[in-house]
Amino acid sequence: MRPLDRALTGALADWLPRQRWFGGKDRPIGEVTIGSDTELIGADTELIGAGTEPPVPLEGAPTLRHLVVDVRQGDDVDRYQLLIGSRETLPERLRPGEIVRTPDGAHLYDAVHDPDLTRVLLDGVAREAGVGPLRFRRAPGAEIETGLRALPGAAEQSNTSLVFGDAYICKLFRRLSPGVNPDLEVNLALTRAGCEHIAGVRGWIELEPGEGGEPVTLALLSEYLRTATDGWQLAVTSVRDWLAYPGPDGHGRLPSGGGAWEPEEPAALDAGAAGGDFAAEAERLGAATAAVHRDLATAFGVTPARAAEVRAMARGMHRQLDEVSAAVPELAGHADAIGRAFDELGEHAVDIPLQRVHGDYHLGQVMRSDTGWVLLDFEGEPARPPGERRAMAHPLRDVAGMLRSFEYAARFLPAGDSTLSAEAAHGLELRARAWAERNREAFCRGYAEAGGADPAAHEVLIRALELDKAVYEIRYEARNRPSWLPVPLRSLEHFSAGAR
Ligand SMILES: Nc1ncnc2c1ncn2[C@@H]1O[C@H](COP(=O)(O)OP(=O)(O)O)[C@@H](O)[C@H]1O
Ligand SMILES: O=P(O)(O)O[C@H]1O[C@H](CO)[C@@H](O[C@H]2O[C@H](CO)[C@@H](O)[C@H](O)[C@H]2O)[C@H](O)[C@H]1O
């Protein structure tokens, strides 16, 4: 190994666990090795495009390498994608991304923050370039405007998204799975089905695996929804408005507002009375979800759900419950009540067919544009293996995911305030419940009226699916954002209290 690579892989073992998108923060890294290394901007670069000249870097100009690294943690090896910039001097704005200084004095850094380098990704797609094992693909009929500068989007989540001008968003998948990424696969299929509720695909980048294997999707380039706002922001704004609502008599009920906090009964709480009501949007979102489910069924087909499949689903839920209860002690007190809901599902007949679904559906995955709701990120739950993420599932699984998200939005603000008295916290919990209830109902109504399976007619299934998602969230929060753990726990406390 070159000394430069030794310095880099050593430093990555420290740097990777500090990245939001790194999925193995709960275990130490044993070793990082470089699997593939492609120079995208550098002395020997050759961007093979339609009649284009390869970019020739100026003396001392920054260079860019594309790396796929294998990260070993115990017996597991996960594959990640990195863009590594190299500069002799590092401008202040790129310092936070610095990974290491090499023995010859170069600064190696996370190049996603460097528009001088990331421009090559858009150029590559526009030219349908090929560099080493990297293939840049343009979607059929797409015209790409080049020369736009990119910066990472503010909402960095499981991957890194670069926004080019205000025209395109390029999602770099950080953890790589073999084959076509479901996000690309589903978006292309929905485009072909004429679905109105997705962002248009403009292109993608893939890695030729060699040996006749399937190409590995590295990035997805989509239309950027410039004027849209994500569902989470809209919902939390509505909750904030509702929690601060002084009531029709205007006497002020916020504990911090100086007035006495009077715990209210849910029946007396009209969450639609405050100005920022979300219910009409929730209903439209339900309808958009049903439309996408219909198009997914057309594009990928449906299979009947037999009793054996439902029992297997219930067993899988139990398995996850056991694993997460063992790892997160706060869950253990609710495990019996949750387990009983899974047993009930196992004994229950479900006659709705299985199909491809979104798989990780929540308010952060939908955006309200000026024409309607758009669904994003069809990758499935990032912690699940690729086979499971593609599996046929019950469409109400997505409905349950969104219902959980209403619970999150409702409880997120109060959960962060440790200064509340018990009485005030109780009052806020009642308001949170009223908001969640109103928006859950509106979403389900919109979903059923637009042709989706009526959630009200599948109480046992929806309950089990919601609890399964809550258990997943407990593990997700414990691993990724421990300070958020009280949010799903609050819902489970409420559920356990009702189940006693
Ligand atoms: N086409 C788009 N237009 C505008 N913003 C987008 C678009 N796609 C994604 N985003 C923004 O980027 C965020 C992350 O996108 P997402 O696909 O969910 O990535 P991740 O897999 O990292 O969670 C979204 O919550 C949204 O705010
Ligand atoms: O969007 P991702 O694919 O990265 O999904 C993961 O992260 C989500 C959080 O960013 C997480 O969603 C949970 O928190 C949301 C609020 O931030 C909430 O709306 C969701 O209902 C809740 O599940 C998701 O579970 C995880 O897979």
Automatic annotation (TrEMBL):
Segments spanning the bilayer are none
Return the broad EC class.
transferase
Which residue numbers delimit the Maltokinase N-terminal cap domain? 15-114
- Known catalysed reaction(s)? D-maltose + ATP = alpha-maltose 1-phosphate + ADP + H(+)
Q: Which one Pfam family would you cite for this protein?
A: APH
Q: Where would I find the Aminoglycoside phosphotransferase domain in this sequence? A: 280-412
Copy the pathway line from the protein's UniProt record.
Glycan biosynthesis; glycogen biosynthesis
According to its UniProt record, which protein family does this protein belong to?
Belongs to the aminoglycoside phosphotransferase family.
Tell me which InterPro entries the record gives.
Aminoglycoside_PTrfase, Kinase-like_dom_sf, Mak_N_cap
The protein's matches in Gene3D superfamilies, at most eight in alphabetical order, are given as: 3.90.1200.10
| Subunit annotation | Monomer.
- Tell me the protein's name: Maltokinase
Q: Which EC number(s) does UniProt give?
A: 2.7.1.175
> Which keywords appear in this protein's UniProt record, sorted alphabetically?
ATP-binding, Carbohydrate metabolism, Glycogen biosynthesis, Glycogen metabolism, Kinase, Nucleotide-binding, Transferase
